[in-house]
């Protein structure tokens, strides 16, 4: 097997999340696989309300935005708003809108989440309410993997040329015989089913009732995604380039109802799937037929009813979700540390953050899935459903707020759905209104005499009467909070490394990247790593450690060491890319860049020697003149050696860069202290750093071949 620990249902589910993030995150409903240019337009940023296309304001989502921006002090019905009567082009310039509030085509990975929750409902409540135990967790995972089968896994390597293929060999190796055989069986029948429906020939009988139900869930989840796209009328306010790309995918954007052919196709496929012998009626066919299918049929008959499909209470969104048996009947608060709660958390995350995009290639769902996948890799036997649930929910409140995505999520809603303990743990990871709260909490965590268990801190396993709010600076992180915060950072670093050209403005350059890594996120990560280091060293030095009241067991200690190792490695890889960016900003050649990197990491070179050989020699400011003139560096303040608002006569600001180096040298010391500086590990890290440089150089070459300005080829980190 691919891992030394048992291949449990949870492990297989989390691996499926990782595969989905790695294979399908660039695919969108209606459009299919999108170009990176399209993805770059979706990256989260702020735009003036006045710059948004007029057709948007005549949709339900658009009127919701106008209600929030122009009538924030009133409880106004958005349907009563007449966009023509508002000064959108004038006063709208003062309103900056997060693009995550704008409707977008959903990522295909959402349909896997929907299908999984549909089948979980069948498992728990199918067969006339008795539950269909034959709808195994393996069948649910196999259904989720359908859209990933045969695709390249982008997280297999930094270079796309080295990515693994999710083929049968991959499935048998990583998911075991049962899941792999079910993926192949479902896929084989799904192809036959689709061909029969599209050709109008007789549909073959499904191999089993479970596969029939899986096919119905797949088709219904796909229909739900298309229905939301149609209801949101996303195509109506796309620009010419996006419409052209859709046209190449076979979508006629010139007609009044461009989604209709695809909506009709998936309606017919779903209706046919629901008629298959063996499809569960009570938990799948009935709740979806009376919501989704009915609403889509009405919209196909009368396009004026399209908006009923969308919006906060839309029949293709809200009614589908709340009528799923897992949402209607399952009480996650009674079993917070269960695989069922993980599934429901994934659904809550998907429905709240469907419009959310990060400052990189990733959607919000893929970001959460990637955190969960890395958690499985580094935690091993210490992986618990609770940790995965937190990975799913950690951004829901912060990024699902009214001002970010327009969803209006809150900790109170999390408490209602998942109970007080889960809400408390989510609040721990939700930033308060104080920007420095995370750093203060991390510093306080370092000062604690022992690691805080979330089970003890939040009374997990029973109901609690509590008031939840975003945690303030005076509340330390629990062990679960430390794990998610560190792995969240790992994924953010990884996003910056993999997708450098998708960032915008100052985030493309060394200044913002290094400041974020050292002063912003670094102020949180460093104390948390040091606290884990203390615990690990205590466990090794104290023979009586296991008798301490608040000791950490051996399995979790091993996981803690793996987390520290992973965080240090990704920080160093991110440093390497940042140094390559800095070298590019200063116009250094390949040999000079190599010298810069070597001196940066050389612990035998003290601060004075580094300043003389690097800051005063290699990074000579006279070389910035050419960079500024060519556009390779748009502004002086974009490079790390100058303040953000620097002008031509501003002095250098070298402190952040020097502290960044000190942090890198401290990571070397931590490796030695933990004994994880083995030749094998250091060689592996060196090889990955070389891959980072090759990916960066390839992005520069690609930009030159496409005649893009040099300054438009660099990138920055995720949020």
Strand numbers in spatial order across the main sheet:
1-2
What would you report as the Rg, rounded to the nearest angstrom? Answer: 26 Å
DSSP summary: helix tally: 29
- Report the average pLDDT across residues: 89
Largest beta sheet, briefly? 2 strands, antiparallel
Helix content: 55-70%
Query: Strand share of the residues?
Result: under 5%
What's the end-to-end separation, in Å? 35 Å
- Give me the secondary-structure category: mainly alpha
Large-scale geometry: globular
Total strand count, please? 6
**Low-confidence segments:** 709-719
Commentary on this structure:
There is one protein chain. This protein is mainly alpha-helical and about 725 residues long. Among the domains are: about 45-100, no CATH class; about 345-495, Hypothetical protein af1432, CATH 1.10.3210; about 500-505 and about 530-710, no CATH class. It has 29 helices and six strands. The strands form three sheets. It has a two-stranded antiparallel sheet with strand order 1-2. A two-stranded antiparallel ribbon has the order 3-4. A hairpin with a 3-residue loop joins strand 1 and strand 2. Helix 7 runs parallel beside helix 10 (about 280-300) and helix 21 crosses helix 23. The longest helix is centred in the first third of the chain and has 32 residues, at about 170-200. Residues about 710-719 have low confidence and may be disordered.
């Amino acid at each position: 097997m691919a891992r030394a620990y048992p291949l449990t249902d949870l492990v297989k589910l989390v691996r499926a999340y990782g595969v989905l993030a790695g294979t399908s995150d660039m695919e969108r409903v209606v459009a299919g696989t999108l170009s990176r240019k399209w993805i770059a337009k979706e990256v989260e940023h702020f735009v003036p309300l006045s710059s948004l296309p007029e057709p948007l304001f005549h949709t339900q989502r658009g009127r919701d935005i106008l209600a929030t921006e122009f009538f924030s002090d009133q409880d106004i019905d958005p349907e009563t708003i007449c966009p023509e009567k508002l000064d959108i082009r004038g006063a709208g310039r003062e309103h900056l809108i997060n693009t995550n509030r704008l409707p977008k085509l959903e990522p295909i990975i959402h349909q896997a989440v929907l299908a999984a929750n549909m089948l979980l409902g069948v498992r728990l409540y199918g067969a006339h309410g008795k539950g269909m135990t034959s709808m195994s967790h393996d069948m649910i995972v196999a259904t989720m993997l359908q859209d990933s089968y045969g695709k390249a896994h982008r997280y297999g390597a930094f270079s796309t040329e080295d990515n693994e293929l999710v083929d049968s060999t991959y499935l048998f190796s990583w998911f075991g015989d049962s899941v792999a055989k079910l993926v192949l069986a479902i896929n084989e029948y799904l192809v036959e089913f689709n061909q029969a429906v599209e050709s109008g020939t007789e549909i073959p009988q499904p191999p089993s009732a479970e596969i029939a139900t899986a096919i119905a869930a797949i088709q219904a989840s796909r229909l739900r995604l298309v229905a939301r796209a149609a209801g949101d009328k996303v195509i109506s306010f796309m620009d010419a380039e996006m419409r052209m790309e859709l046209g190449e995918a076979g979508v006629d954007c010139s007609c009044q109802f461009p989604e209709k052919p695809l909506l009709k196709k998936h309606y017919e496929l779903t209706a046919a799937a629901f008629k298959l012998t063996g499809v569960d009626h009570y938990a799948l066919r009935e709740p979806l037929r009376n919501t989704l299918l009915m609403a889509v049929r009405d919209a196909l008959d009368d396009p004026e009813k399209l908006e009923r499909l969308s919006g906060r209470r839309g029949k293709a969104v809200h009614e589908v979700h709340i009528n799923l048996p897992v949402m209607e009947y399952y009480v996650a608060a009674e079993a917070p540390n269960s695989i069922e709660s993980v599934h429901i958390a994934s659904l809550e995350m998907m429905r709240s953050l469907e419009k959310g995009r990060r400052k990189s290639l990733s959607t919000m769902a893929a970001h959460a899935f990637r955190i969960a996948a890395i958690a499985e890799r580094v935690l091993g036997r210490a992986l618990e459903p609770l940790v995965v649930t937190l990975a799913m929910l950690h951004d829901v409140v912060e990024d699902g707020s009214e001002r970010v995505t327009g969803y209006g999520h809150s900790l109170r809603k999390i408490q209602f759905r998942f109970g007080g303990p889960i809400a408390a743990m989510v609040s721990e990871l939700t930033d308060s209104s104080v920007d420095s709260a995370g750093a203060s909490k991390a510093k306080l965590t370092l000062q604690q005499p022992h690691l805080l268990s979330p089970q003890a801190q939040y009374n997990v396993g029973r109901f609690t009467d509590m008031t939840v709010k975003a945690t303030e600076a005076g509340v330390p992180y629990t062990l679960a909070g430390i794990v998610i915060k560190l792995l969240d950072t790992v994924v953010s670093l990884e996003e910056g490394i993999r997708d450098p050209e998708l960032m915008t403005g100052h985030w493309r350059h060394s200044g913002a990247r290094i400041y974020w890594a050292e002063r912003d996120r670094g102020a949180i990560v460093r104390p948390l790593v040091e606290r884990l280091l203390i615990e690990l060293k205590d466990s090794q030095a104290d023979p009586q450690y296991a008798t301490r009241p608040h000791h950490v067991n051996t399995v979790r200690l091993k996981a803690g060491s793996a987390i520290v190792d992973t965080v240090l490695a990704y920080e160093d890889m991110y440093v390497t890319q940042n140094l390559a960016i800095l070298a590019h900003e200063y116009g250094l050649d390949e040999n000079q860049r190599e010298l810069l990197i070597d001196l940066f990491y050389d612990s035998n070179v003290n601060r004075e020697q580094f300043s003389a050989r690097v800051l005063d020699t290699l990074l000579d400011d006279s070389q910035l003149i050419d960079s500024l003139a060519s556009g390779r560096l748009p502004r002086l303040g974009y490079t790390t050696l100058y303040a953000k608002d620097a002008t031509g006569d501003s002095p250098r600001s070298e402190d952040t860069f020097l502290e960044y180096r000190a942090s890198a040298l401290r990571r070397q010391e931590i490796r030695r202290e933990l004994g994880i500086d083995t030749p094998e590990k250091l060689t592996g890290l060196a090889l990955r750093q070389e891959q980072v440089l090759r990916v960066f150089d390839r992005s520069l070459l690609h930009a030159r071949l496409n005649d893009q300005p040099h300054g438009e080829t660099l990138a920055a980190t995720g949020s």
